[in-house]
Each structure stands twice: as C-alpha cells, then as structure tokens.
Design a protein that fits this description.
By secondary structure, this protein is of the alpha/beta class. The chain has a single domain, classed as Rossmann fold (3-Layer(aba) Sandwich), CATH 3.40.50. It contains 10 helices and 13 strands. α5 runs parallel beside α6. The protein starts with a helix and ends with a strand.
Length: 267
Amino acid sequence: MSRVWQFVEAAGLAPLARKSYLLVRAAPKGWRHRGQVGDVTAEFATTSLLEYQRVTTLFGEEDILAALLADLDGDEVVWDIGANVGIYACFIANKLTTGIVVGFEPEPVNEARLHANLEANAPSERWQTSSVALTDDDGPGRMASADDRAKGAEAGAGHHYLAPDGWLPVECRRGETAITEGVPAPTVLKIDVQGAEMKVLEGMGDALADVSLIYAELHTEKCPQRYGTTVEEVEQFLTDAGFTLTNLGTPAGSREGVYYVRAARSS
C-alpha cells in the first residue's frame, strides 16, 4: 500500500477517494460497462468503485467464466450460489435460450444490484434471484464479512460468510428445501461461498443427483478456519457423488488460497 493511500485512509477520506475515482473512470461511459466473454456479452451499471472493479476486471476469473459458458447448451437450470452483483449470472442468462439462472445472494445491497443487473440484461423468464443463504440447515443465521466495506453497504463488497457472531441477519436454506419452496431444481451449480462449499453441497441432499456440472471456488484456508472442513474433503465428496474433477487453477492476479474445480458427471 502506498504512503499516499495510507494517509488517505488514516484521514478518513478513503470513501470519497473511491467515489472520485469511480466518477473519473465510469461517468464518461454513463456509469455502465459492457463486457464480453467468448461470444457472450453483458452490460452492468457501476454504482460503486468495488462494483466497477468487479465488472471491468472480473477479479481474474475470465477464463473460469468462459469455460462455464462454453459448457452450457442453453437449456440448463443454473444456480449461481454467491452471486454478488451478478457478473456470472448476467453472462449465463444471456447464454441461455430456454433455461434459467437463479442467483442466490443474501447481502441485501448486492442482491438489489444482482436483480437490477439481470433485469437490464435478460428477459424475466431467463432468471430469478433469491436472498437466502444456501447451507446445510434451514432457519435464521448471521453473516460476517472479511471486507469492512461490506458493513457500509457498498455494492460489490464481497467475502461474506456465515458465522454465529456475524453482523448481518439472514435466512438460511438447504438447497433441497429451496426446491420444495418453488425454486427450479438445478442441473448446473456455480459455487462461490467463501469456505462453506461442503455445507452447500451437503444441503443439496438428493437434488445433487440431478446436477450434471459444478464449477466451484475452493478455499484452502477458509474451509478449515471457518467451517472445520478441507478442500480435500470437498473434492472427495464430489468424487463419491459421481463427479470427475478437473483442477482449473487459480484466478489471475494476486489472490491466494483459492482455486477452481470443474466437476462433471460422465455423459
């Protein structure tokens, strides 16, 4: 971190500096950004610096998103679990022809942006949103965040995770419960849940048998620290469930302690 930025943060000017940066970079484009991954395009509003960074950089996940899009035929039911402001969900919705993407995002500011971005990109029959946190239990829960900006309700803030002492009350559901409550049963899962990968998978119950493809972000440190599981256990769970795993590597950039797997059933 530069000394200038340290001074800005110490003086309490960081929010203003971020907003000014966004104004300079995004305002000339009408506060919107149009991106393309493969042959699929999507357009996003940028209401905060974090949201702007997400949609312009894809946080180093362009290759992962491209691989997922290439795997879709267009008729799938895709659950985007941990959808944030909807980057994956919007591209997926625009790739689908008869299918549907369901974006799960319990943080209310991000869920609102997820809904707005999907509404701006695809017809309503191609998408749904849900504010529940998918896990291995039903009922009330709480979420914490490793990003202090999340508490300030800045769109695009991430790293939310379920924790007993969390600051944000949320409603939790098992995936199989969500299906009984009317959410379309998935055939494809995209999972980005900051270490709770095993809990999400276990919560799918028997519905996992109908899932043919999973793209999951696995966290080598957050799994054991937050939930007492390991990425090796997650991989073994998927293997035991009949999936063949491909390690897709780490995101581009400087993120550490995370890698992606593609889990597919044999056709």
